[in-house]
């Protein structure tokens, strides 16, 4: 029920040379890339052997008007759900990972830090912090049994991991209880062991035991069948460092000093009443967010507990700001981003790329462009190197104007055991998965 949940930390790709704003770039049309894409397309049949046995939208059914939207398979009686775990290869055993245990959390952190998603050129790898993992995996109503590890029997070393957390996701007018599947990671040395399908089946079984029959997940690869495909965009905050580490490169006819000047931001936010979100703001932010998310075809159904968990600021995990009208004291606008650094592989000078990822943003009185520019300003003040955003919700309206450049990472969104007759446009999606 999920592949590793992210497209790689990617880097901006070749942009048009007419636009100074898109000058930080990297060529995506190298021979290696073309060969790799060709090989990928040739292995489609092989790669989907597993997914073709699962209740997911199949490519052959796309646009078939005779198929109803909704669950693909009905729920099984709980008594008929397999009671014991799936069999692993004999040298491995299941373990449930308690992220409240410092030792276990460190093991999970190290497994992901060394083996999780990399970009195509193997220059960057996601480096989720321990605080982030605890936040991501302990939402209201979470099940510890859904935080699943695989250990080697001989030395008890953690060699693989997959997680689910419960969520309520609205699809058109239906609110569906789902699991969000994330952090599927198998140790690099065990990639040939076919562990991933067993892990996906096992997390699915444990989700079924809680009487939940649908799931949402994302992947950087095409599986049957995306509900939408989004593009990552990157906004340089520290252009010199991004160029030095190879995340981006100097555009044609650009000097370093011109580039630094191009991306320079004001010292402080422009919007009167722009401040950090506090606990007392949870009801107002919930109202704002619920009202905003109602316009999208697929979006989370957040209540106040969810908003408190997912959006109340936590240092080095999630940042949230709002606009409180100086006159009426009404909360009119909101923006947020989460912290996901990447390890920089093989660079002598720098080891970490500090990236902010746009999360949920709502503009009612302050223009979205101005709100997001203020978000860039506070992210720069907090020493982020780059600000990333997907072209979901209304994000497209500010990307080019605020000097974001398109990346080479695409992120495909999937639903498990829930059919959508037609794919969505990214702007119809109101869901951000970590």
Automatic annotation (TrEMBL):
For bias kind Basic and acidic residues, which ranges apply? 13-28
Enumerate the spans annotated as Glycylpeptide N-tetradecanoyltransferase N-terminal domain. Answer: 71-230
Please give an example of a GO cellular component term from this record: cytoplasm
Question: What are the boundaries of the region Disordered?
Answer: 1-28
Which Gene3D superfamilies does the entry mention? 3.40.630.170
Give the Enzyme Commission number. 2.3.1.97
Key word Acyltransferase present: yes
InterPro entries attached here?
Acyl_CoA_acyltransferase (IPR016181), NMT (IPR000903), NMT_C (IPR022677), NMT_CS (IPR022678), NMT_N (IPR022676)
Please, which domain of life does this record's source organism belong to?
Answer: Eukaryota
Q: What Pfam family is a match for this entry?
A: NMT
Family, per the entry?
A: Belongs to the NMT family.
What function does the entry list? Answer: Adds a myristoyl group to the N-terminal glycine residue of certain cellular proteins.
Name of the protein: Glycylpeptide N-tetradecanoyltransferase
- Report the source organism: Prunus avium
